[in-house]
């Protein structure tokens, strides 16, 4: 009897323990599958391209003496602002003055010879009229007079040329601007036309950049904006004015010049800037991992994770595939959360525990 009671007590205790275990199992929540999720972010299909630019004047030319000679003095320095007609440098005028004096002497001799020839021609005409000289003599006097007139004309032009050459000994600014380079020094002997000073004319400034071959043809199709390095808060619209026809043989880039709209006093020659060129293609696309795409035979789709963790299959349109990502045109919205990995192992309606992919 005692054994039977002990057996019943043991059975009741075991049943109680089993009941407690069953109740504990029933109260446990089901384990949710962990899923890596990533937010959808749309960006321009063709992002802006940025290039280093240098501010240069639209017109910048070398100025040189039009005659050869020895530089006596240079009046201006590099970076000095000048006005049209200001004196820049001078040559030694000694030889030029001698040439002018020689031309003046030739002109005086020619005029004297012309006076004598004209008088001889007049006397020959009177003698011929009175019958005292033959026609041949009159013709010779007329030819001599014409030759004297020609000699006077040549001497007069020689005087003008000598006067011009003497004036060319003084190099003057052709326009208002800034001296950007001084290429000669006093005592230096220069040839005619040799660059002596470089003058940047006042007026429109431009941004000069070097464009790569793949982008040169599209530079004028988009919109451009210029940001100055010393003043990052200053941005100016820019437009392509000139694109080089040939690439640089070393860098294989094309020189391009962009006009700066609304340039103010902050824009200075030689300043560095960043030129951002936006493509004319205004389309936007979302870049998602290739592993996020799932195809059930009806086209590519992605799993969207709702707020409660449930999954929704969303068909998408793929613009193009890249090495590790795909560009989506539509099917998802900005800010949507999508499964970034293991999309083929999930099912519609299933709930997951989202974990941000960038948190790992």
UniProtKB/TrEMBL annotation:
Residues 65-196 form the Multidrug resistance protein MdtA-like barrel-sandwich hybrid domain. PROSITE patterns: PROKAR_LIPOPROTEIN. Pfam families: Beta-barrel_RND_2 (PF25954), BSH_RND (PF25917). The keyword Iron does not apply. The keyword Signal applies. GO terms for molecular function: efflux transmembrane transporter activity. One of its GO terms (cellular component) is efflux pump complex. Residues 208-279 form the CusB-like beta-barrel domain. Residues 125-146 are annotated as: Disordered. Residues 1-18 form the signal peptide. Gene3D superfamilies: 2.40.30.170, 2.40.420.20, 2.40.50.100, Helix hairpin bin. Keywords: Signal. Belongs to the membrane fusion protein (MFP) (TC 8.A.1) family. This is Efflux RND transporter periplasmic adaptor subunit.
